[in-house]
């Protein structure tokens, strides 16, 4: 891995939190992701399943974690299963985890090779009453590929039909959404790498540069700072491309006078950051662009203040909508009649700001978190309002990542990344 080894104490704490929420006499199993094929012998780069990483720190394919807090013997309560390494594998694929190295990474003392999994699991099933299976219940999930986890669930249900079934996901949604201090440090590092990439762009962008050249500058800066690259598919949208919310072609030339909406951020150690800035191709905003930009910035700043313990996500978005409505009235994009006659299910402001303002962030860019439960300290959220005006040929979105505090306003993990008009213009023209 490119990143520095994470202190295994984090994963010890994470497992303890999960096991404390399990039913008596139950087992939980977590599988790594597959390496997905492209065609012929080509594959996509491996990306670890975030749940097994969160609980073990193991960042390797063909790994399994078994948790059994009520096991009759202490050495059965946490077990890792790994693909057996060999000299041949080391030559062709590089170093894989040994049993000793796995303990250093995870803090788990009992490590078997994968070939022993079925035998060991069978013994655990004779002691246990319930199995926790790990299904994907994220509110944005849309999965068509059968995952390694899904194959295991089918196999286990067929093999052990007499056991009770419980779900891991609700536990993970709660504990993963509240970050440990070590996790906040990792996310901060991802944000710091993102800052370096963004500052690099401010001296690089000029008329006639292409969106893909900007993408290349970012990936260079991210990787040289120990990131694997982008935390998500980058959006580098110049001119009217910014009005396509998930524009990812990044193949157009940036024209003088236009704006570029940059929704781009680095990962670090599998933790995400999520930045959006909108900058002028020519280094200066027009008066109209500046007016809309500052309106978006005011919405972002006011919305941020509302991210406090006890806040409900749905109500928060209603309040943000009221602030945005006021700004759109001031910009002349809507009028009082539009507001008075609006459909409550799709308020007038939605014509220019049609997406949500905040989502959880962490190991996943759209991270775990139960939206019907109130916000808690040490949750990390994005704040990303935007105004999109196809008729005027530009869209503006601004986004920071913040940590909910016990008291007061959230802590901005992107506080050092330029966002004010004057600072961006000054850096672009220095």
Automatic annotation (TrEMBL):
One of its GO terms (biological process) is proteolysis. It comes from the Bacteria. Residues 6-142 form the Aminopeptidase P N-terminal domain. Its cofactor is Mn(2+). Its EC number is 3.4.11.9. GO terms for molecular function: manganese ion binding; metalloaminopeptidase activity. InterPro entries: Aminopep_P_N, Creatin/AminoP/Spt16_N, Creatinase/aminopeptidase-like, Pept_M24, X-Pro_dipept-like. It is an enzyme of class 3 (hydrolase). It catalyses: Release of any N-terminal amino acid, including proline, that is linked to proline, even from a dipeptide or tripeptide. Keywords: Aminopeptidase, Hydrolase, Manganese, Metal-binding, Protease. PANTHER family: XAA-PRO AMINOPEPTIDASE 3. Belongs to the peptidase M24B family. This is Xaa-Pro aminopeptidase.
């Amino acid at each position: 891995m490119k990143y520095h080894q994470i202190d295994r104490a984090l994963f010890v704490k994470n497992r303890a939190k999960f096991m404390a929420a399990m039913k008596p006499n139950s087992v939980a199993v977590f599988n790594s992701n597959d390496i997905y094929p492209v065609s012929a012998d080509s594959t996509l780069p491996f990306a670890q399943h975030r749940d097994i990483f969160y609980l073990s720190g193991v960042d390797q394919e063909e790994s399994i974690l078994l948790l059994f807090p009520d096991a009759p013997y202490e050495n059965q309560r946490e077990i890792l299963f790994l693909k057996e390494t060999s000299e041949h594998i080391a030559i062709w694929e590089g170093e894989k985890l040994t049993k000793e190295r796995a303990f250093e990474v995870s803090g788990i003392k009992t490590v078997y090779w994968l070939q022993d999994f079925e035998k060991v699991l069978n013994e655990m099933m004779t002691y246990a009453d319930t199995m926790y299976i790990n299904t994907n219940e994220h509110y944005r999930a849309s999965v068509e590929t059968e995952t390694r986890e899904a194959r295991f669930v089918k196999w286990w249900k067929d093999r052990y039909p007499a056991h009770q079934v419980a779900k891991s996901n609700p536990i993970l949604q709660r504990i993963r959404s509240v970050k440990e201090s070590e996790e906040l440090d990792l996310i901060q590092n991802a944000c710091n790498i993102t800052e370096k990439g963004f500052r690099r762009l401010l001296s690089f962008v000029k008329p006639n540069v292409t969106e893909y050249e900007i993408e290349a500058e970012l990936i260079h800066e991210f990787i040289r700072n120990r990131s694997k690259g982008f935390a998500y598919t980058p959006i580098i949208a110049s001119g009217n491309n910014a009005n396509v919310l998930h524009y990812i072609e990044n193949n157009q030339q940036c024209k003088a006078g236009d704006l570029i909406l940059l929704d781009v951020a680095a990962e670090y150690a599998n933790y995400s950051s999520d930045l959006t800035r909108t900058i002028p191709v020519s280094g200066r905003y027009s008066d109209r662009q500046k007016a809309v930009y500052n309106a978006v910035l005011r919405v972002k700043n006011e919305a941020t203040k509302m991210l406090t313990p006890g806040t409900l996500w749905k109500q928060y978005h209603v309040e943000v909508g009221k602030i945005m409505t006021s700004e759109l009235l001031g910009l002349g994009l809507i009028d009082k009649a539009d507001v008075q006659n609006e459909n409550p299910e799709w308020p007038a402001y939605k014509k220019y700001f049609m997406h949500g303002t905040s989502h959880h962030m962490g190991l996943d860019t759209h991270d775990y978190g139960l939206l019907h439960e109130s916000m808690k300290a040490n949750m990390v959220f994005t704040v990303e309002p935007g105004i999109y005006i196809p008729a005027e040929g530009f869209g503006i979105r601004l986004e920071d990542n913040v940590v909910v505090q016990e008291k007061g306003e959230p802590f901005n993990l992107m506080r050092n990344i330029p966002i004010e008009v004057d600072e961006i213009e000054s850096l672009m023209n220095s």
